[in-house]
Amino acid sequence: MVESNQGGESLLFLTDEQLRKGIEAMFFAYRAFTADPDRILEGMDYGRAHHRAIHFIHRAPGLTVTNLLTILGVTKQSLNRVLRSLIDDGLVEARVGRSDKRERNLFLTAKGAELERALSDAQRARMRAAYRAAGPVAVQGFRTVLEAMMDPEMRRQYQSLREGGV
Amino acid sequence: MVESNQGGESLLFLTDEQLRKGIEAMFFAYRAFTADPDRILEGMDYGRAHHRAIHFIHRAPGLTVTNLLTILGVTKQSLNRVLRSLIDDGLVEARVGRSDKRERNLFLTAKGAELERALSDAQRARMRAAYRAAGPVAVQGFRTVLEAMMDPEMRRQYQSLREGGV
DNA sequence: AATTTACGTCAGCCTTGTTGACTTTCCAAG
DNA sequence: CTTGGAAAGTCAACAAGGCTGACGTAAATT
Prior knowledge:
2 copies of one chain form a homodimer. By secondary structure, the first copy, chain A, is mainly alpha-helical. The first copy, chain A, contains 7 helices and 2 strands; from the N terminus they run ααααββααα. The first copy, chain A, has one domain (16-157): Orthogonal Bundle (Arc Repressor Mutant, subunit A). Helix content of chain A is 64%, strand content 6%. In chain A, helix 1 runs antiparallel to helix 5 and helix 2 crosses helix 5. Chain A is globular and about 55 Å long. Chain A binds a DNA duplex through residues 47-49, 64-66, 74-78, 80-82, 84, 97, 100-104.
């Protein structure tokens, strides 16, 4: 181990094999990560795209369509299809913007919040189990590496997502 | 810090907020993780599915179609479409099994290996940069948490993927 | 008044997943 | 040696969820 070089900035020796292991870990873990919500969604008319929309509307209530577009990194048309079905089914409410009436502020309805809870309960359960099994030091490292993997703009978005809505 | 409780088995206190941050980190990081290969693939007739097939054939040369099916977790028909185009284009060779002639052992051709290298170079570069920035302790934690997130069967697969082919 | 922005929508396309049905090949057990 | 069943391949049809391009409307901005 290279424990002596704490920062790991210069002398960290990384073989292709080590990196490949990391790549495959991402692949398999992401599959597991999405498996539980996918299971809940299948049978409903919804899919992973609906889950993502619901997640971020819950996360930042009142965010605009353009906000959500940027976060999800998809086209307006693609998001619209998803959003429309959620609005039609009464899971999401789109209120006309208070200051700028062109904007639509998105909120979950009670029904939407209910589905959100079911989905995120499942996903959190897995995450919690993994965190518990791995321990706090590992969790810190997990978050650090994931963050380091993001593009700067994405990382900024990820970090600033706390202020959120309206 | 909860350094005192090394294993983190029982006393680890995890708020929904912490877990949500982890969930979002996975979402954003995975996008970044696939962005580079996706960029290379766009323009060619290939997509992420081709990349995955190429990756695991490179990883375990000589693996059978059924092996690959299990690893990727898709249907035979779905994989076949991808595999056929790779074979037709001369990136993958499917040799009739030596002992069991029903089986096809899959190998990359020189041309296939070349694309594999381009794709994994890009992906490894990002992974390497993230690892370097995060440091060895974080990397260890990253791998530990990802592994803990997998289902037992998947984890077994992930770990035993070293023996691989033929 | 003209332009730009935010949003919605129609139409069409692609990739990648799915099911179901069917054939061929071929190993292995009866 | 025959036959049952596994492994593989293929056809057809479909769905989700990406994409582009074009167009319309309302509201804000210049």
